[in-house]
Amino acid sequence: MTDGRTTGTARAFELLEPLVQAATVRVHAPPGGYDTSGSHRTGPTWGSGFFIAPGWVLTCAHVVGEGGAAVRLTGREVGITFHSGRPRHGGPGAQGAVTGTVTGRVECVLPERLEERRPGRHALWDLPDLALIRVLAPVSHTCVWLTDRSRPRFDEVAYFGCTEDLGTPEITGRTTRLRGTAGNGAAIRLADDDEIDPGMSGGPVVDLARGEVVGVVKARRHTGGGGLAVSVVQLRTLPMAARGQVGLYRRIMQAHDLYHYDQHLSDLDNRRTWTDVHGELPPQERDPYGGRGRLTPGERTTLYGLLAELPPPSSSEAVRALVEAVRGEEPDPQPPAPLSWRDGLGLLHDPPGGTGEAAAMLRYATDVSVAEYREPPTPGADEELWDWVRATAERLWRPLRRELGERHERGLAERERRRRASAGRAAGGPAPRAGGLPPGTSVLLEVWAHGWEHLYDWRVSVLAGPAHPGRLTPVDSGVRATVAGLPERLRAPLAEAFRRCDTHDAAALLEVAVAPELFGLAVEDWVVAGGVPLGVQRPVVLRHPGGRSTAPAPGVDPGGPDIPAAGPQAHPADHETGRAAARWARVQAGPLQDERADCAGGRPRAPSAEWLSGLPDTTVPVHCRAADQEPTLGSLHAVRDAGYGVAVTRRPPPDPRVSCAPFHRGLREELADAGRAEVLPVRLQTLRGRAYGADPDAYWAAGAGLVWEDPARPLPDVEPLHGDL
Fold it and tell me: How far apart are CA 108 and CA 202, in angstroms?
């Protein structure tokens, strides 16, 4: 222990050290042949790791990349040396436990781009620098308790890892303090109270006051003690699951919570569990929620276990909505999105307004017990959760039980109403029209030109959609990015926004709001996660920036037959607003017809306002030329001013001699087959997927973009502040 620690900290370390040591492992080269556990042929230590769920080890990506600059990280086999069994009550750590070595396989690394680009030797790896290892044999081991808090508290902590101070590898622990965050909260700064030895990378960082793992040791300072750890909350950035599947993060956290729940309920031995130790930790000074204001450790473990028995939430936004209903305010949008019911509990620590933490968590659990799950729960699982909530509420404050009972009844009635309405629509009402966009939240990407420079400011947000028109939740923003640098700058913010909006059934819509001259941005070709372009993973549409254009469309040399240039005789804005709503409603129902707006027989032309106004409302204006050049730029303005909410644009191929006829021919067939506009965003996604899969019949759609001005999804009118010019 480091000198100067408080008595409470010393006692917490004494209680937690055996549990953490028993779950911490040594990572090295995979064992060869039939090496026994006592063999020294496993080679030098690469780093440390720790069990977070049965069969799963968390460590740093740079640890599993040791000595493998030329090999792929995901799928690489590594060696794991661990302690079998749990520390005995009153025993010194894992003393008496069997040490074993097993092979593990790296299942994924974060960030995914580490597979493409890794730093040089002795350089810091990109955050979050995490790796998940699956153990390839059934073994008996213990698991740590992971925090559910989105942000760490800057208190005293202990960090553990493999050292060779006495000539042989062993797991040791030392204490220090947290001094702040880095990397937008992805990393935690460790104070310089003690040295971090090289083999400790990948080991756990434990909050001593609360008895929970908050970080993973990443790096030490070259000049002395202290260093960086990665927040375990970054596990939420694990790749999202394919549609209809349970993601890796949710699977692991479910296994984590059920492990501790089972250990808490088991009476097969008298060895300490994490829940036992949580109950023995010294009380926190000046804790406003101490005593009856917080759940007991046993109640908390039970609640997490009961939540883990339920199907996962349908989306991150479903969790945030329940948290907001309990807190009375929107939860902090900055940490990685909550993906599990457990993550929602983590947003309810220290609630505002003097509300007791335990009461807030019980209200949340009540709402979860009557929530709409993405699949039917195990029979009785939701009732078991409610029974536990009601019994626990009586211990806290008996009137709370009545309040929660009324909340539960309202939730049941609302759930039944939604189910009856859904059944009624299926039985007697109009059948739901398949192939349209999901009705929930969408991701909004806004990009603005930075003055006269070839630089751009940007903002990524969550747009609430029809349920809360105009409601915007910022995710991240930035200034002064080049066009070439936008994909890399936006990779992490877009990934976070997608985690918040994607549901079990559908990938969220990406709306790209830019000036028409930027409609040529190849956003659908950017790769954010999974190595697959955005336009293949999800629907991507273009939007004009918030607020309607009042400037007349620029006059252009027509260059085509009998269509005069657009001039200043545009319709008044209020009239066009009504006309736009009518056009939108009619084009959604179809049948669709295409009309070339900037081209006639391969020659450029510009439409006039009169000509555009006279077209049928089910017309989809089509552009095949560069959006940042005339006549297309003027045509895009004119089409919008004429009230067309659905239009098509395209980045022309690099070779100007390539005819646009195949594009127009293919699009005409696609529109006729679609029949109605409401399915176009998803159909264009399908076309991009076919082209990505090397289907030559879909190559004509390369560079196509869909302008989609949905009046139910209004955009904000205010641009973000520009950076210094």
Answer: 15
Return the SS3 of 345: helix
Which residues, in sequence order, are CB contacts of 34 under 8 Å at separation 6+? none
208, 5 contact by CB (below 8 A): no
**pLDDT confidence of residue 398:** 78
- Residue 717 has what DSSP assignment? S
Angstrom distances, CA of residue 261 to CA of 145, 246, 301, 305: 11, 21, 6, 5
Distance CA 284, CA 274 (A): 18
**pLDDT score, position 86:** 55
The pLDDT, as a whole number, for residue 85 is: 59
**pLDDT (tens digit per residue) in 183-207:** 888 999 999 877 888 899 999 999 9
φ/ψ of residue 458, rounded to 5: -145, 160
The predicted structure's pLDDT at residue 222: 67
Cis peptide before 111 (omega within 30 of 0): yes
Bridge-based pairing state of the strands 646-650 and 704-708:
antiparallel
Amino acid at position 350, single letter: D
Sheet containing 442-449: order of strands: 472-481, 456-463, 442-449, 510-513, 540-543, 704-708, 646-650, 619-622, 593-596
User: Could you write out the three-class secondary structure of 20-42?
Assistant: HHHHEEEEECCCCCCCCCCCCCC
Residue 85 token pair = 């069994």
Only one residue has tokens 């973000």, namely 720
Give the CA dihedral 519, 525, 530, 536, nearest 10 degrees.
80
Give 490-513 as a 3 state SS string.
Answer: HHHHHHHHHHHHCECCCCCCEEEE
DSSP bridge partners of 47: 27
> What 8-state DSSP symbol labels residue 532?
S
Query: What pLDDT does residue 724 have?
Result: 43
| Three-state SS sequence of 594-625 | EEECCEECCEECCCCHHHHHCCCCCEEEECCC
> What is the residue whose two structure tokens read 């508290």?
153
Which positions of the chain have pLDDT values less than 50?
1-5, 33-40, 89-96, 426-432, 548-572, 721-725
> How many other CB atoms sit within 10 Å of the CB of residue 95?
12
* Three-state DSSP state, 443: strand
Read off φ and ψ for residue 33, nearest 5 degrees: 55, -130
Looking up tokens 């434990």 gives 206
Instruction: Tokens for 358, please give them.
Output: 């335990």
The structure's pTM equals 0.84
Q: What pLDDT, on the 0 to 100 scale, is given for residue 552?
A: 35
Q: Which two tokens stand for residue 37?
A: 């556990």
Q: Are 636 and 672 in contact (CB under 8 A)?
A: no
